[in-house]
Specification:
This protein is an alpha+beta fold and 306 residues long. It is globular and about 55 Å long. The chain folds into 2 domains: 114 residues, ApbE-like superfamily (T-fold, Orthogonal Bundle); 157 residues, ApbE-like domains (T-fold, Roll). The strands form 5 sheets. Strands 1-5-6-9-14-15-16-18-19 form a 9-stranded mixed beta sheet, covered by helices on one side. Strands 2-4-3 form a 3-stranded antiparallel beta sheet. The chain has a 3-stranded antiparallel beta sheet with strand order 7-8-17, with no helix packed on it. α1 runs antiparallel to α6, α3 packs parallel to α7 and α6 runs antiparallel to α7. The protein is 32% helix and 27% strand.
């Protein structure tokens, strides 16, 4: 985590660090004293305002994405070894067994509390960084900071513009090698990337298995995408969408983008295509035109660039 802010003192940055650690203490799935860990162990809790808010946002996005985002996949992630480092390819029967209890629709969030079904365990990792970035952004603006850049590991939050008024230049990682795929200019926006390259292992069968699971199959999502970058005003939403759209694949992602109308995209496909939405046409630069072809999605047509 790297926090860079202008026009404030060390005390403000220390406060941001403390706030991040406070939220981690609520959301962490591995710390036994966190609210999420207690929920997973006990089946129900009376959540804090932040946990209630984050879970509510996750459930809303699960509904919106047709279940492509599901925060109830933690037992499956553990079975694959993505939470422990003990990687394995589970058997089909075991996956079916765990999938039976992995259904966001069985999460009960009410005025009385937060309750999950037996055998279920939640993991807010798909939007916790984005949620945290939103909270930190609010704290900075309350402190009068108008220029800052927050890097929470794959989640970039630009607070305002650079001190000189120009946009931040944010590199998007190449999912098939070292260096950057391209650069996007952004101000007062979140830029969040999800990709299979972030956490993966190679099985005994020689196949690569990554940590982004498809809730429909319980297996790593194979949608034709290598990475998804979402640019928008809300960090939590960009974070959750980057995972959901990765699962959905290019065509469903395009339809969602056209209907939602409140975010922009950079998609990298398995066949070497970089797709950007037309709102980024003037602010995205492809760094490797010899390696990738560029396509711009418009809301009514698609245009190819040589």
């Amino acid at each position: 985590m790297t926090l860079r802010a202008y026009g404030c003192g060390q005390e403000t940055l220390d406060g941001l660090k403390a706030e991040t650690e406070r939220l981690e203490g609520l959301f962490s799935v591995t710390r036994p004293d966190s609210e999420i860990a207690r929920l997973n162990a006990e089946g129900s809790i009376v959540p804090s305002a932040d946990v209630r808010d984050a879970v509510g946002k996750a459930l809303a996005l699960a509904q919106e994405s047709g279940g492509a985002l599901d925060i109830a996949l933690y037992p499956l992630l553990t079975e694959w070894g993505f939470t422990t480092g003990q990687y394995q390819v589970p058997g089909a029967e075991r996956i079916r067994e765990l999938l039976a209890a992995a259904d966001w629709r069985q999460i009960e969030l009410s005025d009385a509390g937060l309750r999950i079904a037996p055998g279920m365990a939640l993991d807010l990792g798909s939007l916790a960084k984005g949620y945290t970035a939103d909270v930190l952004t609010k704290r900075l603006k309350e402190a009068g900071v108008t220029s800052a850049l927050l890097d929470l590991g794959g989640n970039i939050q630009a607070v305002g513009a650079k001190p000189d008024g120009s946009s931040w230049q944010i590199g998007i990682r190449d999912p098939q090698g070292e260096g950057h795929l391209g650069v996007v200019s952004a101000a007062d926006m979140a830029v969040v990337t999800s990709g299979g390259y972030e956490r993966y292992f190679t099985g005994e069968d020689g196949r690569v298995y990554w940590h982004i699971l498809d809730p429909a199959t319980g297996c790593p999502a194979r949608s034709g995408l290598l990475s998804v970058t979402v640019i928008g005003s809300e960090g939590w939403r960009c974070d959750g969408l980057s995972t959901a759209l990765f699962v959905m694949g290019p065509e469903k992602a395009r339809e969602h983008w056209r209907q939602a109308g409140n975010y922009e995209l950079v998609l990298v496909t398995e066949d070497g295509e970089v797709i950007v939405t037309d709102g980024l046409a003037g602010s995205f630069t492809l760094s490797q035109p010899d390696k990738y072809t560029l396509t711009v999605w418009k809301r009514d047509t698609v245009r190819n660039h040589d």
